[in-house]
Amino acid sequence: MNLPFFISKRYFFSKKKKNFINIIAIISMLVVSIGTASLIIVLSVFNGMEGLLRSIYGTFDAPLQVMPAAGKSFVPTEDLKQKIMETDGILDITEVIEDNALIRYSDAQMIVKIKGMSDNFIEQGRMKNAIRQGELKFDDGKTAYAIIGRGIQFNLGVSLRNDFLALQFFYPKNVKPGAVDPHQYYSRANIMPGGVFALEQQYDDNYVFVPISFTEKLFDYKGKRTSLELMVDPEKDLPTIQRSLAQTLGSDFVVLNSDQQHADLYKVLKIEKLFVFVIFSMIVGIASINIFFSLSMLVIEKKPDIHSLFAMGAPKQLVRKIFLFEGAIIAFIGAGSGLVLGFICSWIQKTYGIISMGISTSVTQAYPIEIIPVDFIFTALTIILITFIASIQPAIRASKQGVNKG
Q1: 299-310: pLDDT as tens digits
Q2: What is the helix (H) or strand (E) element at residue 115, kind and residue range?
Q3: Where is the ABC3 transporter permease C-terminal domain (predicted)?
Q4: To 10 degrees, what angle do helices 373-399 and 263-301 make?
């Protein structure tokens, strides 16, 4: 058996007496365990939030989006659309006109983001599971309809049962100087509310979907579009399709996947996750001071044992390893039990959804959890490294006891 490990294990698990030093060591181990478990749980929540956002955006956004590299809009020529459709893996093209506009209903008004979509958007059924009232439709053959977010419905007091009150949209025009008539400064169009969706608060409070012909008239775009949303074959490799399409379209257009369409948000999430990891690691680092003091006091308590070892010819490295192993025992038991506890808590939340987010989405109402093995690896390595560093100075001090005696 490894002699330093055997001695350090006897020191830690000694059944003859539990003195103050043992109690501090046990408390240190518990602090490391709780800190490790907390870090695993928080990281799993961040992973779950990222997965939740991808699920929501997967309902709202197309897998690929084509936008102009410069400017706000472009004219999608037949040649352009043919090039896109000839790309292997592309199934459908949805034309989009998107911009901000003022919406008024009765006496209430607000600024919203209006998104005009071609008719195949309805046929794709991307938002069919998000409809809470009314129907997913743009027209019934006679009347055009808008699909509004639930937050907009609440803020404006929109009633789908009122067949006489329409949504009024206002958009500023590019007018020449000297115009006198106020009506020349904005365009106006009315449309009936036909459905209410609920995805996520950011979308529910801001987005209105309408037929593309409605926004083309309201914004006076005359054949121009702000983007093209592309449906792809799920069995094909998306990055390959994206690279091929970007090469085909050239530098005049950018092709974005669903993550790139929300790159800033995902970047913020990753930065927050990194900061949480650093903060919790610092907390464990502060807690490891207890390990430093417990090992330092253990060195003082075991001074006669250390002198006996030196008297029997033990080298400094052996004594140093004894106390390094003592710190390693605290680290591995604390980190190991913390990893197990964090996994159990995360699994319970993931399986049973005990803790609610307090908000309702079309995907989940409980705090989302995603357990990723790499989080366990980095957490374990970080905790073990911190506790090992806290054990170095007491171990060096113990190895010098023989020198001090001489």
Answers
A1: 888 888 887 888
A2: strand 108-117
A3: 278-401
A4: 30
